[in-house]
């Protein structure tokens, strides 16, 4: 039997959205989703530690086998970009610890997987994900965006694993 | 008695130089230095794991209390800059695990600490460090540069800790 557990993550120093999907016999099921919120007043090293610990527990709990991430792009802030690397580094460390396979997708690939269209707007992606998971509507707006992003990344990962 | 153990690191995916200094009664002693060499053919997550494990052992062995790093700058290659963040993230994680204090220095601060002059060239810094630690001459050229950089960073850390 072909079975995979995919963890999709949209990392951030304030809010990190995540989704966990199970693939079984060519079908995908979302088994968990949510977010980790960290205090911007906490020292960076403490937050990197919290992030690592949080996903270490998720990986153990759900017996994750694959990790799905979006390729980062350099925005206006170089420091933010570098620090995002700290969180990604923690995920690479976890992938080494638990022998997870890492899949990285461009924003375009994620959009195609969710909406079928690479030029879809961020709002269109969110709408599509929300229509699939109505429970998400209950989340506060800021957290909701991070969770829908993480679900889109997870869905993209599941899609690639099914056809791969 | 005032005692600190400083680990200075110049991280890299091929060669990471390091230095370990002990400060006791306002005096600094270099107690270890060297480098970690990783295979460029190994997967990134494996190398992040090796890097974390290597410095985890050094921190335990020498009972390190402080970490000294150089502020990274964005060079020509954005991917290299991002990946450097993966290694720095591992060090932030270790600093959280062992409650180490992190000190970050600009290249200018490191140069001043070693040569007394912020406009010193890379070669001048290396020459100064080599004159302090003649044993370094035995190292192969590439590794030597990474180790002298790590020693300069460690010396800067010791200098700041002594006066701090």
Protein chain pair with the most extensive contact, residues per chain: A-B, 25 and 25 residues
Structural class of chain A: alpha/beta
CATH H-tier superfamily of chain A = Ribonuclease H-like superfamily/Ribonuclease H
Number of helices of chain A: 5
* Average pLDDT score of chain A: 91
In short:
Two copies of one chain form a homodimer. The first copy, chain A, is α/β, with parallel strands linked by helices. In chain A, 50% of the residues lie in helices and 24% in strands.
Report on the structure:
The structure is a homodimer of 164-residue chains. Chain A is an alpha/beta fold and 164 residues long. Chain A has a single domain (3-163), classed as Ribonuclease H-like superfamily/Ribonuclease H (Nucleotidyltransferase, domain 5, 2-Layer Sandwich). Helices cover 50% and strands 24% of the residues of chain A. Chain A contains five helices and five strands, in the order E-E-E-H-E-H-E-H-H-H. Chain A has helices at 44-62, 78-97, 107-115, 122-132, 141-163, and strands at 3-10, 15-24, 27-37, 66-70, 101-105. Chain A has a five-stranded mixed beta sheet with strand order 3-2-1-4-5, with helices on both faces. Chain A is globular, with a radius of gyration of 15 Å. The two termini of chain A are 15 Å apart. The interface between A and B is medium-sized, with 25 and 25 residues.
């Amino acid at each position: 039997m072909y079975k995979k557990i995919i963890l999709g993550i949209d990392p951030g120093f304030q809010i990190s959205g995540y989704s966990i999907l199970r693939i079984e016999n060519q079908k995908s099921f979302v088994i968990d989703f949510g977010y980790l919120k960290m205090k911007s007043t906490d020292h960076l090293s403490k937050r990197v530690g919290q992030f690592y610990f949080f996903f270490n527990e998720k990986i153990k709990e759900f017996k994750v086998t694959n990790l799905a991430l979006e390729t980062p792009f350099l925005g206006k802030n170089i420091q933010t970009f570098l620090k995002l690397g700290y969180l990604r580094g923690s995920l690479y460390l976890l992938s080494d610890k638990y022998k997870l396979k890492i899949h990285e997708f461009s924003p375009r690939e994620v959009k195609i997987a969710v909406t079928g269209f690479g030029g879809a707007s961020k709002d269109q992606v969110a709408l599509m994900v929300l229509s699939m998971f109505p429970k998400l509507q209950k989340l506060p707006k800021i957290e909701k965006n991070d969770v829908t992003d993480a679900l889109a990344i997870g869905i993209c990962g599941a899609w690639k694993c099914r056809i791969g």
